Structure formats: structure tokens, C-alpha cells
């Protein structure tokens, strides 16, 4: 899948595994047309308006001229690396530690890329099958979000990291199940309650802890979008589930619980450890008990558990499963403040970048006025940052 593919002096792309062709999954469901255009749901309509207003262009918002450290393209602290601190890690020569950093970044961003494509297809299915017109309108804004994310992750992998992996088995199985499911709310559970919260957990951690400024900015903007997506799922499902029977709710609890187990225990980079060939079983054992995995799980379930409670999937079976995972305590967390912070951080970063852009423009104009024949100072920075007009920024290959 080649989306945005600008000419770049970035790394040569190493593709792990079989990335050719496409996966064909039969779609299930019934497309619903809604003829009532005049009855509106204020919550969904407000979310739709925010979705329209907060669109951003990856070409102009991000500084694609930035060249990260090729040995550490995300600027990851050691505690991001699942085997760091282990006896295996200490035995590795420096060149192999660099390889682990690149492959960790490539595996992680590849899973995000595949998840964004799944979300693109899944939200399209929701738009077809959900009955409410305002929900269909909002879903259209999320479709654009997912397309932008897929474009940007693909470009990031191709031009900054240089390693791309196939989809992990745990995500692939979940996606296959959802696309074959005819009921729209199952896609909403998987996408908006589980996967989008996984993204929020990961991007929030990256925003706070990565050292590379480009990677931090990218994570911040994506997290702002994901917060809207999670809000949509919570609104839709907490209204719908009171209408269902106990048996129907139990079926959905079982599905959500299985998705949680998959992310807790099976999202540990098996494909990466096989490719690196340091001893797959040893690496997996270290990864599962690593501080990085514990932190990821903490951030994930402090978002997922309150969401499950909020939408009404919180019966005895769900509570028992969460207790076995050791995450039932997150029930007491009010995650509204966390989700609000995701949006505020992105808005502040946008204001800072716009102010910086204006300052550089003013400085360039001032210098140009002093000596009309001189090239404007700081031009390289201006061109690299881009502009607010449609299309790629000046000086950036299209």
C-alpha cells in the first residue's frame, strides 16, 4: 500500500514477512438509509462539528524535513524497549541494540498503520449500518481522520524508520472477526472502545516520553483525533445497550473481554522477535514481564475499564475477567480529565507552532525589507514547516 510517497533521502525500506497482495474478508451487515434529516442528536451533532473543525493536514502540520537519529528514529528511552535491562540485552553488541531500536519502532508503527486501515474500513461499515443520521455524519469525519493517520504512518515508516512489519496475529484475528460480524456495535466495541483506547494509551506515552520532537508532535495530533473517536463509541453504545437483553449483553461482554486479553497477553511483538532471531521464546518471556509492557497495560486499562463500565458492559463475567487481569481497580478512575488533557495538549502545540510560524514569517519579511537583494534568513525553516494552504508545503516534494 503506497499512499503518500514523497521523494526522500530517508532509509531504504526493509519489509519483514509477506506484505504483497491484499486480505479479502467477506463483509456482513445491512446498509441503512435514513430519511429523517431534521431530527438531530445534540451530542452527536456537536461531535460532528468538532470533527469537521479539527481536521489537519499531515503535509503542512508536520515538519517532514526533520531527519531523526537513524539509530533511534523515535528517540525512545531504554524503558520503551521490552528486552532492555535483561541479561539478553546486556549481551547484545551496540550494532544489535541499534537494530532492536529500529525494529521496535518499525513493528510498533506498522501495527498502528494496519490498525488505522482497519479503522478506515470499520468506520465505513459503521457509517453504513448505524441507524442515526448524525452518527453517519460524524463517521464521515472519522473516515478522514483514519485516512490521514494511515497516510502519515505509512510515510513515517517509509521515510524515517525504514522497517515495516505485517499485521500481528492478535490484531489480524480481531479485525477478521469484526469485518465478518453483521452487527454494527461489535465494530464499535473493537474499534472505539478497545483499539482507539490502545492508541490513546500508546500515543499519550509517546507524547510524554519520546525524545524526538517530530515523533512527539505526531503522537500528540493523532491522540487528539483518537479522543474524539473514543467519545463517539461511548455515546453510541451507552445509549444502545440498555435496550438489549441479558443474553445479548453477555455475548458482547465475552467479545470485549477476549479483545482485552488479546492486547494484554498477545500484543508482544512475536513477529519482531522471530525476525531479530535472538531466541523468540526467551524474548517473548522477557517482553511479557518487562516494565515497558506493564506501563503500556496500565495506560491501556486505565482508559478501557472506565469505558466498559460507562457503556454498560460490566456484568459479573466482565468484572471477574478484569480482576484476573489485575486491572479491575481502574474502575474507580474518572478518565474524563485524561481525555480532556489529550485535546488540550494538542491544541496548545498547534498554537505554539502557529505562533512560531508567524514569528519566522515576520522575521523573514523584516530582513528582506532591509536588503531586497539578499535571500531571506531562516527560509529553510519556513519551507520545512510548510504553510496553511491546500497541497504540500513549498520546498517539499509532492
Which H/E pattern describes the elements? EHHHHHEHHHHHHHHHH
Largest sheet: 2 strands, parallel
Radius of gyration: 22 Å
* Secondary structure: number of strands: 2
Strand content: under 5%
Separation of the first and last Cα atoms: 17 Å
Question: How are the strands of the largest sheet arranged?
Answer: 1-2
Quick summary:
By secondary structure, the chain is mainly alpha-helical.
Topology at a glance:
Elements: E1 14-15, H1 42-53, H2 58-61, H3 87-91, H4 94-129, H5 133-161, E2 163-164, H6 169-180, H7 184-209, H8 213-240, H9 246-265, H10 270-276, H11 280-288, H12 291-311, H13 316-325, H14 336-370, H15 379-385
Parallel strand pairs: 1-2
Characterization of the model:
The protein has a two-stranded parallel sheet with strand order 1-2. The longest helix is centred in the N-terminal third of the chain and has 36 residues. The N terminus and C terminus are likely disordered. With 398 residues, the chain is mainly alpha-helical. The radius of gyration is 22 Å and the shape is globular. It contains 15 helices and 2 strands. Helix 4 runs parallel beside helix 6.
Name its key features:
mainly alpha; two-stranded parallel sheet; disordered N terminus; disordered C terminus; globular; 398 residues
Amino acid at each position: 500500500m503506497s499512499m503518500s510517497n514523497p521523494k526522500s533521502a530517508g532509509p531504504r525500506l526493509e519489509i519483514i514477512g509477506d506484505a504483497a497482495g491484499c486480505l479479502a474478508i467477506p463483509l456482513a451487515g445491512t446498509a441503512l438509509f435514513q430519511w429523517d434529516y431534521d431530527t438531530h442528536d445534540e451530542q452527536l451533532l456537536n461531535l460532528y462539528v468538532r470533527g469537521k473543525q479539527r481536521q489537519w493536514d499531515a503535509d503542512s502540520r508536520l515538519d517532514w524535513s526533520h531527519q531523526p537519529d537513524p539509530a533511534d528514529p523515535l528517540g525512545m528511552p531504554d524503558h520503551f524497549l521490552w528486552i532492555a535491562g535483561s541479561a539478553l540485552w546486556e549481551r547484545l553488541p551496540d550494532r544489535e541494540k541499534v537494530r532492536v531500536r529500529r525494529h521496535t519502532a518499525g513493528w510498533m508503527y506498522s501495527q498502528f498503520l494496519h490498525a488505522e486501515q482497519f479503522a478506515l474500513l470499520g468506520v465505513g461499515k459503521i457509517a453504513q449500518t448505524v441507524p442515526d443520521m448524525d452518527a453517519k455524519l460524524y463517521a464521515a469525519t472519522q473516515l478522514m481522520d483514519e485516512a490521514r493517520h494511515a497516510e502519515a504512518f505509512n510515510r513515517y515508516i517509509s521515510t524515517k524508520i525504514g522497517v515495516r512489519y505485517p499485521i500481528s496475529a492478535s490484531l489480524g484475528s480481531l479485525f477478521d472477526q469484526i469485518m465478518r460480524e453483521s452487527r454494527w456495535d461489535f465494530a464499535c466495541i473493537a474499534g472505539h472502545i478497545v483499539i482507539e483506547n490502545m492508541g490513546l494509551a500508546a500515543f499519550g506515552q509517546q507524547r510524554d516520553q519520546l525524545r524526538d520532537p517530530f515523533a512527539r508532535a505526531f503522537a500528540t495530533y493523532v491522540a487528539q483525533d483518537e479522543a474524539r473517536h473514543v467519545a463517539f463509541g461511548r455515546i453510541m453504545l451507552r445509549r444502545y445497550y440498555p435496550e438489549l437483553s441479558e443474553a445479548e449483553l453477555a455475548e458482547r461482554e465475552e467479545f470485549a473481554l477476549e479483545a482485552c486479553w488479546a492486547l494484554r497477553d498477545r500484543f508482544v511483538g512475536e513477529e519482531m522477535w522471530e525476525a531479530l532471531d535472538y531466541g523468540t521464546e526467551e524474548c517473548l518471556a522477557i517482553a511479557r514481564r518487562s516494565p515497558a509492557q506493564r506501563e503500556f497495560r496500565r495506560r491501556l486499562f486505565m482508559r478501557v475499564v472506565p469505558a466498559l463500565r460507562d457503556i454498560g458492559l460490566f456484568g459479573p463475567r466482565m468484572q471477574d475477567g478484569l480482576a484476573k487481569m489485575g486491572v479491575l481497580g481502574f474502575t474507580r478512575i474518572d478518565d474524563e480529565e485524561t481525555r480532556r488533557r489529550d485535546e488540550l495538549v494538542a491544541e496548545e502545540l498547534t498554537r505554539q507552532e502557529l505562533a512560531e510560524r508567524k514569528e519566522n514569517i515576520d522575521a523573514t519579511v523584516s530582513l528582506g525589507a532591509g536588503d531586497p537583494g539578499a535571500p531571506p534568513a531562516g527560509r529553510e525553516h519556513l519551507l520545512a514547516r510548510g504553510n496553511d494552504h491546500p497541497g504540500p508545503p513549498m520546498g517539499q516534494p509532492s
